[in-house]
Design a protein that fits this description.
The protein is built from 21 helices and 19 strands. The chain is globular. The chain is mainly alpha-helical and about 600 residues long. Helices cover about 45% and strands about 10% of the residues. Helix 7 runs antiparallel to helix 21 and helix 19 runs antiparallel to helix 20. A three-stranded antiparallel beta sheet has the order 3-4-5. Strands 6-7-8 form a three-stranded antiparallel beta sheet. A three-stranded antiparallel beta sheet has the order 9-12-13, with no helix packed on it. Bound molecules: 1-deoxymannojirimycin. The site of 1-deoxymannojirimycin has 8 residues, from helix 21. The site of 1-deoxymannojirimycin (DMJ) has 8 residues, from helix 21. GO terms for molecular function: calcium ion binding; mannosyl-oligosaccharide 1,2-alpha-mannosidase activity. It is an enzyme of class 3 (hydrolase).
Length: about 600
C-alpha cells in the first residue's frame, strides 16, 4: 500500500513526531473520559447532569429476577420525589378508635367520607441508587426505609397479573396465565380480591384498592350453591371484608357483605354439641361434611365472630364461639394437650394426634389473640392459652443435637420429630404472648420465641433456594431439612416471615429484617415468573419447577408481613390491632357494647 504525502504536512503530522502525537492523543482521550465519567458522580440536582443524561439513564435496568417486562416497566416509570421514600409508613392506623371510645361511636364517626389514603398513589418504584445499594448489600446498607416500597412493587406485580389474567377468579395461575376457582370456597369467587383489599389499602395503592372495592360492590355474589370450608371462608372472606371495613370505614358495602356471609355460616353449628362441621353447603344452608371436626378449623372463628356480633349488635356469633370455648375448656385433655380431631356429635376427641402445625396451629393463635383483642379482659382465653403452652413446652418442644429448638408432633404419646412450615407462626405467637403470662416467664417466652424463629430461619438457609420446605425433620441425621420428596415444596406461605415481623416489632433486632430481606431475594429469584409469583416444587433443587399457583395468602399475608417488617411500628401498632390468621387486621375492642 502506498501512502501519498500531503503537501505541507510532515510524515508524523502537524510537525509532531509520532511518539509525541501518541502521547497527546492519549492525554486528550483521558481528559474526555474523565469529564464525561464525572457526570455520573455528580448529585442528581446538578444541571449539567440533567442535560447530558436522560432520566431513563438513572432508572434501574432490572429488578430482582430481571424479567424483560420488568425492565421495560421500569424504564417507563417517572421519577418519584425523594421525600416520599422517607417515613413511607402510611398513617391509616390513625383511624383506629380512641382508647376510651365505644365501637358504635367510632362507626358513626366513620360514616361519610372514608379517611383519606396516606400515601400518594404512584410510588411504585424505589429510587434506583438507594435500591441498588440495598439490593446488593442489604446488611451493610441499613437503608431499610426503601424496602416497603420494594414490597409494594412486588404487590403491584402480583396484583396486576391477577387482574390481567384471572380477574374475579380465586387465584392466578401465573404460568398458564389463567384463573383458578378450586373447591375450597363453595363457588364463592374473587378470593384474591377479598384477601388483598386491606394490603392494597395499607400500601396506599388507591387505584387498585378502588378496583377491588368496586368488584366487591358489583360482582361479589354470595348466593353460591357449593360446599365450602367454614374455616377458609371465615378467615379469608369474613376476615378480609371486616378488616377492609375497619381500615376504611366504608360501612355499607363491606360490612353488609361480611354480615350476609356470617349469617350463611351459622347452620354449620347445628350439631348436637354446637361444634361446627368443617364443610358447609352455602346453597342449602346446612353443613355438608360428616366425620370429625378439626381443631384448627373450629378453633379459628373467634376473632371474626366476636366482631360480627359487635358490629351487628347480635350476640349470636359470639354465643356460637363461646360455646366452642366452653366445651374445650371442660373436656379432658391428654397431658394438657389438645388433639386435632373432635367429634361434633359426641364432643369427644377422635384421635390423639397433636400438632402446632397443620390441623392445630391457629387454634392456639386465636386463644392468645382473643385475649389481646378483648383489651386483655378475656381471662378464660388467657388461662387456656398459657396452660396449652405449658403442655406444649413439656411435651412437644425439643432441642436437636445441633442445638435447634423445634416443636415436634405427638401421636398418642410418641413423638414425631417433624416440624411443619405452618408451625413456624408459633415464634411470633409466643412472642406476642410473652408479656401477659407470669412476669418471671416473660424473658423465657421471648427466648423461646426467638429460638423457634431461628430454627425456622435455618430451614430456609439450609436449602438451595433459601426458601423453606413444607415440613422439615430432626431425625435420621436431618436437622431442619426435609427428608421426604413430598415435603420439599414451598407454596408462598407466610408463617416464617410472620414470625420475623412479630420478633422485629418486639425486639428490634436487625437480624429479623436481614432474614426478611433474604426471603425477598429468594422469592424474587425463584418464585417470580413472567406473569406473577408461583410456588415451587422443591426448595433444594438448583433449577426450580413451579407449581403454577399464586396463592391468595401471598398477597394477604406474605407481602403484608414483609411490608410491615420494613415499616415503622406505628403502622398498625400491635397495641391497637390483632391480625387474624390470614393477616387481616382487626381492632382491639376497648369497650364492648355486648353484655354477655
Ligand atoms: C393461611 O391461609 C392461614 O395463615 C392459615 O392459618 C394457615 N395457612 C395459610 C397460609 O399458609
Amino acid at each position: 500500500m502506498v501512502f501519498r504525502k500531503l503537501p505541507g504536512v510532515s510524515a508524523s503530522g502537524m510537525g509532531l513526531r509520532l511518539s509525541q502525537k501518541f502521547v497527546f492523543l492519549l492525554f486528550l482521550s483521558g481528559l474526555v473520559t474523565l469529564c464525561f465519567g464525572a457526570l455520573f458522580f455528580l448529585p442528581d440536582s446538578v444541571r449539567l447532569k440533567r442535560i447530558f443524561l436522560s432520566k431513563t439513564d438513572t432508572q434501574p435496568v432490572t429488578v430482582g429476577s430481571g424479567s424483560e417486562n420488568d425492565a421495560k416497566e421500569h424504564l417507563k416509570r417517572t421519577e418519584v420525589p425523594e421525600a416520599q421514600f422517607h417515613g413511607a409508613a402510611p398513617t391509616t392506623c390513625h383511624v383506629v378508635q380512641s382508647k376510651s371510645s365505644k365501637l358504635p361511636r367510632v362507626l358513626t364517626q366513620w360514616t361519610g367520607e372514608p379517611p383519606s389514603l396516606p400515601v400518594p398513589s404512584v410510588p411504585h418504584v424505589c429510587p434506583y441508587n438507594s435500591f441498588r445499594l440495598l439490593y446488593r448489600h442489604p446488611i451493610k446498607a441499613r437503608d431499610w426505609y426503601v424496602c416497603p416500597l420494594f414490597m409494594l412493587q412486588m404487590m403491584k406485580f402480583a396484583w396486576d397479573n391477577y387482574k390481567r389474567y384471572a380477574w374475579g377468579k380465586n387465584e392466578l395461575r401465573p404460568l398458564t396465565r389463567n384463573g383458578h376457582i378450586g373447591n375450597m370456597f363453595g363457588g364463592l369467587k374473587g378470593a384474591t380480591i377479598i384477601d388483598s383489599l386491606d394490603t392494597l389499602y395499607i400500601m396506599g395503592m388507591t387505584e387498585e384498592y378502588n378496583d377491588a372495592k368496586e368488584w366487591v360492590q358489583t360482582s361479589l355474589d354470595l348466593n353460591s350453591n357449593g360446599e365450602a370450608s367454614l374455616f377458609e371462608v371465615n378467615i379469608r372472606y369474613v376476615g378480609g371484608l371486616l378488616s377492609a371495613y375497619y381500615l376504611t370505614g366504608e360501612e355499607v358495602r363491606l360490612i353488609d357483605k361480611a354480615m350476609e356471609l356470617g349469617e350463611k355460616l351459622l347452620p354449620a353449628f347445628n350439631t348436637p354439641t354446637g361444634i361446627p362441621r368443617g364443610v358447609i353447603n352455602l346453597g342449602s344452608w346446612g353443613w355438608a361434611s360428616a366425620g370429625s371436626s378439626i381443631l384448627a378449623e373450629f378453633g379459628t372463628l373467634h376473632l371474626e365472630f366476636v366482631h360480627l356480633s359487635e358490629l351487628s349488635s347480635n350476640a349470636i356469633y359470639k354465643e356460637k364461639v363461646m360455646n366452642i370455648r366452653k366445651l374445650l375448656s371442660k373436656i379432658e385433655k391428654p397431658h394438657g394437650l389438645y388433639p386435632n380431631f373432635l367429634s361434633p356429635v359426641s364432643g369427644n376427641w377422635v384421635q390423639h394426634h397433636v400438632s402446632i402445625g397443620g390441623l392445630g396451629d391457629s387454634f392456639y393463635e386465636y386463644l392468645i389473640k382473643s385475649y389481646l383483642m378483648s383489651d386483655k379482659t378475656d381471662e378464660e382465653a388467657k388461662k387456656m392459652y398459657y396452660s396449652a403452652l405449658e403442655a406444649i413446652e413439656a411435651n412437644l418442644v425439643q432441642k436437636s443435637p445441633g442445638g435447634l429448638t423445634y416443636m415436634a408432633e405427638w401421636r398418642g404419646g410418641i413423638l414425631d420429630h417433624k416440624m411443619g412450615h405452618l408451625a413456624c407462626f408459633s415464634g411470633g405467637m409466643i412472642g406476642i404472648g410473652a408479656d401477659d403470662g407470669v412476669p418471671e416467664k416473660r424473658q423465657h417466652y421471648l427466648d423461646l420465641a426467638a429460638e423457634i424463629t431461628h430454627t425456622c430461619h435455618e430451614s430456609y438457609t439450609r436449602s438451595a433456594t433459601k426458601l423453606g420446605p413444607e415440613a422439615f425433620r430432626f431425625d435420621g441425621g436431618a436437622e431442619a431439612t426435609a427428608t421426604r420428596l413430598s415435603d420439599r415444596y414451598y407454596i408462598l406461605r407466610p408463617e416464617v416471615i410472620e414470625s420475623y415481623m412479630y420478633m422485629w416489632r418486639l425486639t428490634h433486632d436487625p437480624k429479623y429484617r436481614e432474614w426478611g430481606w433474604e426471603a425477598v431475594e429468594a422469592l424474587e429469584q425463584h418464585c417470580r415468573v413472567d406473569s406473577g409469583f408461583s410456588g415451587i416444587r422443591d426448595v433444594y433443587a438448583t433449577t426450580v419447577g413451579h407449581d403454577n399457583m399464586q396463592q391468595s395468602f401471598f398477597l394477604s399475608e406474605t407481602l403484608k408481613y414483609l411490608y410491615l417488617l420494613f415499616s415503622d411500628d406505628d403502622l398498625l401498632p400491635l397495641e391497637d390491632w390483632v391480625f387474624n390468621t390470614e393477616a387481616h387486621p382487626l381492632p382491639i375492642i376497648r369497650d364492648s357494647c355486648l353484655f354477655l
